[in-house]
Write a structure and sequence with these properties.
Elements lengths: L1 E2 L4 E4 L5 E5 L11 E4 L5 E8 L5 E8 L1 E2 L3 E8 L5 E3 L2 E3 L3 E7 L7 E9 L4 E8 L5 E3 L2 E3 L3 E7 L7 E9 L7 E4 L4 E5 L6 E3 L5 E4 L6 E7 L5 E3 L2 E11 L4 E12 L4 E5 L2 E10 L5 E9 L5 E7 L14 E3 L5 E8 L5 E6 L8 E9 L7 E8 L3 E8 L5 E3 L4 H5 L11 E2 L6 E4 L8 E8 L4 E8 L5 E4 L7 E8 L5 E8 L2
Parallel strand pairs: 1-7, 8-12, 13-17, 19-25, 27-36
Antiparallel strand pairs: 2-4, 3-5, 5-6, 9-10, 11-12, 14-15, 16-17, 18-21, 20-23, 22-24, 24-25, 26-27, 27-28, 28-33, 29-32, 29-34, 30-31, 31-32, 34-35, 37-38, 38-41, 39-40, 39-42, 42-43
């Protein structure tokens, strides 16, 4: 038995002549020593003789077995290698080798080597300024390009390229709301006065976090403001790069009250008495509460049987500092009066508010009885003399703006405020009604007037280019004569 490709050596000495057949697969057909290398199973015959007549005849079969073969596919990733018979391979190709067999024929192995392609991926990661990205345990806070490896459960790992960049924010809306104007009265010649105010509130729908508030004009809260009006403006900027601004006014007003009365921790000042063209008189009184207990209400005496022309009963009075008070006109306890009752927080610890009311021409009291209730049940009262006060002229619509009832009977909302020249008003509560619109400046002078029909959608109004920046009043009057006034600021 032979394996294909193998040979067999035979030796038969002692004869004079040899005849091997067939001759194929033999190294010699008439030699005593022969090598057999048949390509297939073959039956051989030998005839050997001696000179003295001895004869040897033999027949035998050499069985040839084919060599076993096998094809083996080997795949490997870039950077890896394959070793066959002590030789290392790092590229694709075909390699032959023999696998020895303990019994039988060795196996001829053909190895098909395949270098697999390197998987790769590029990923773009966007993040907001101030945020971070972690890749393979390393934290990145700035844009750049980072390489990494994504392990594979099977096959080759993936080479990853991460492109880090700051997010390009989508458009956003920034909203900012300034505190109300600050009005501080000082004695003439007192000079710069410290004024404090709340910072504006701001918000944004930007997808990236972060909102900065910057003072762009005026002085910060807690600064000494000079006498007169100081315009204070703030700007809010979000991470999307969009901004919004608002402004308010800090007024340090030099004035000499007509009469001052102090009782305990309360101080009452009759600031002025003014008269309009119809003879109605406006009384302006400042109440200062130096107690730690908040003010519950202040009641100011009315002449018997007289009802104040303004503010109206059950309306909401807005003081110059922005605080709101429910009005009872007339009020009967603790005496006949007009009462201003705080709706939320109220003055305490040295804070003050100014109250204004209007009496008919025939009511000209010589003194004013005033009382205040502090929480929980503390009462302070005083009498203010009016004969020290010269009667001035009531500006329009100064008083009316203070006495607007808080209702939605005509004007739901007016925006933006401040405006750059265009106003949007929601008059849907008067839809279909013919209304008059008037714009007054802070001195009461009318700067614009027109008629329109109220619609169900928001309506746009354009302000004249000729008017200057400042505080204005938007007044709407319906067919029934009902009127509502709202303040706004023009800031181009």
């Amino acid at each position: 038995m032979l394996c294909a490709g193998d040979s067999l050596a035979l030796s038969l000495p002692g004869f004079d002549t040899y005849a091997w057949s067939p001759a194929s697969g033999l190294s010699c057909a008439d030699c005593p020593d022969v090598v057999l290398f048949p390509g297939a199973t073959t039956t051989y015959t030998l005839l050997a003789t001696t000179s003295d007549g001895c004869v040897l005849r033999d027949t035998f079969t050499v069985e040839v077995f084919p060599i076993p073969s096998v094809a083996i596919n080997l795949s490997f990733c870039p950077g890896e290698s394959v070793t066959i018979d002590g030789v290392t391979y790092t590229q694709s190709g075909t390699v032959s080798s023999v696998i020895p067999a303990p019994n039988g024929c060795d196996t001829l192995a053909t190895y098909m080597l395949t270098l697999l392609p390197q998987p790769s991926v590029t990923k773009t990661i966007s993040f907001c300024p101030g945020e971070s990205v972690t890749i393979d345990g390393v934290t990145y806070t700035q844009p750049g390009t980072v390489s990494g490896v994504i392990p594979a459960a099977t096959g080759c790992d993936t080479l990853a390229t991460y492109v880090l960049k700051f997010a390009t924010p989508a458009p956003s809306q920034v909203d900012i709301s300034c505190p109300p104007d600050v009005d501080i009265a000082i004695s003439p010649g007192a000079g710069p006065t410290v004024a404090t105010y709340n910072l504006p509130s701001a918000s944004s729908d930007c997808s990236c976090p972060g909102l900065t508030l910057q003072l762009v004009s005026g002085l910060p809260s807690g600064s000494a403001f000079p006498p007169g009006a100081t315009k204070v403006c703030y700007q809010a900027k979000d991470a999307c790069g969009n901004t919004a601004s608002c402004c308010f006014e800090v007024m340090i007003r030099e004035e000499q009250p007509c009469d001052i009365k102090k009782t305990g921790c309360m101080k009452y000042e009759l600031l002025s008495i003014t008269k309009d063209a119809a003879g109605k008189r406006t009384y302006t009184i400042r109440v200062t509460n130096s107690c730690p207990n908040p003010l519950t209400y202040t009641a100011i005496q009315l002449p018997d049987g007289v009802i104040a022309k303004a503010p109206a009963n059950n309306s909401v009075y807005t003081a110059p500092g922005g605080r709101k008070y429910d009005v009872r006109n007339p009020n009967y306890s603790p005496f006949y009066s007009i009462r201003f009752k705080s709706t939320t927080d109220s003055i305490a610890n040295g804070e003050s508010d100014i109250f204004e009311y209007v009496l008919p021409p025939q009511a000209q009291p010589a003194y004013i009885h005033i009382t205040s209730r502090l929480e929980p049940q503390q009462f302070y009262e005083a009498h203010l003399n009016t004969y020290y006060c010269p009667v001035g002229v009531t500006p329009v619509p100064k008083v009316e703006a203070r006495f607007v009832p808080e209702s939605t009977a005509g004007l739901n909302v007016l925006f933006p405020n401040p405006t750059t020249g265009s106003l949007y008003a929601d008059l849907s509560n008067r839809a279909g009604e013919s209304v008059q619109i008037q714009i007054f400046d802070s001195r009461g002078q009318r700067v614009q007037w027109f008629e329109t029909t109220a619609e169900t959608t928001v309506q746009e109004f354009h302000l004249p280019e000729s008017i200057a920046n400042g505080l204005y009043f938007f007044e709407i009057t319906g067919g029934s004569g009902s009127r509502q006034t709202t303040r706004f600021v023009l800031q181009r």
